[in-house]
Amino acid sequence: MTKRGRRGTTLQEIAQEIGVSVATVSRVARGVGQVSEDTRRRVLAAIERYDFRPSRLGRGLAERSHGALGIVFPGLSGPYFSEVIGGFEEEAVRAELAVIILGTHLLRESDELVRDTAARVDGLAVMGGILSDDVVDRLRDRGDPVIMLAGSPRAGIPTIRTENLSAFDRLTRHLLIDHGYDRLVFVGDPESSPDASYRWRGFEQAYRHAEAGPPASPVRVGLTQSDGFIAVDRLLDAGPPPRALVCANDETAIGAVLALLDKGHRVPQDVAVTGFDDIPMAGLPVSGLTTVRQPMRELGMETARLLLREIEGSGPVAVDHVLETQLVIRGSCGCGTA
């Protein structure tokens, strides 16, 4: 006897019942992708038991009815976002798809804006730290292809990110061990994003590896050049400068350099400064900014590729994709100076 299910049964509930992924249920429901015949039969039987019907959006995905990909950031200014968006758009154009870009600016109505955007595109890439896990789960459960960009890995949600923790550990140990600096200060807010959190953890890890004791609390600040300038200007007014400022990104680091010079401090002779990203301007301040190069454009391109695979159901998408980063030594840490 067929079991006519509850209204509102989700892909997640069906997947849990028969022991497959949400993506597999979505592919069978939409009639796309490579799924074994046995799995397909079990999924279809569960769909019939629960009288599950894919949403209008879900049916449209099989045909790419919207002809567009979506990407969501907290804001759109700065070289990091422009590089990632540029790579994402390049792959979308190659697939003959448009791109809808949403900058939430962390507005209170962000969740609603993202859900509305998801209804107008074939798949959505969301920057980590913007949405709650509950909102992401609801998007997934209604069958929307979703990729987390620069987020923390979560079961059932494909994620793509760059390697942050080990890279920041190497950078910090370069200052602690190779240069023998003490009194390092982390400039950035670990709670502002998954990337910043990984970098702070790498900073702490370096202190443990160097047996240097616990580090000072971070100077919690945003990720723009003006944020870096204001935070370091106040830090210098409060007392003697640290020996090195280890900044969460290059824009903050450049602001820190400008604040130090404005107060008459030499970089790196008096205070060393490092960043993260290797934006084009990183080669300009003082004798060049020591930083970590992350493949920003490649991150955007690979995000679009993974999202297209998820939309088309062309094979399983691994849960966590990590792109490598590279330590770049220049003069701002003290290397190459007398």
Provide the fold topology:
Blueprint: H1 11-18, H2 22-30, H3 37-49, H4 56-61, E1 68-73, H5 79-94, E2 98-103, H6 110-118, E3 123-127, H7 133-141, E4 146-149, E5 159-162, H8 165-178, E6 184-187, H9 194-209, H10 225-238, E7 244-247, H11 250-262, E8 272-274, E9 291-293, H12 296-312, E10 320-323, E11 326-328
Number of strands: 11
Oligomer: single chain
Q: Over all CA atoms, what is the radius of gyration? A: 23 Å
Q: How far is it from the N-terminal to the C-terminal residue, by CA?
A: 84 Å
User: Structural class from helices and strands?
Assistant: alpha/beta
Keywords: DNA-binding, Transcription, Transcription regulation
Protein name: LacI family DNA-binding transcriptional regulator
GO molecular function: DNA binding
Domain HTH lacI-type: 9-63
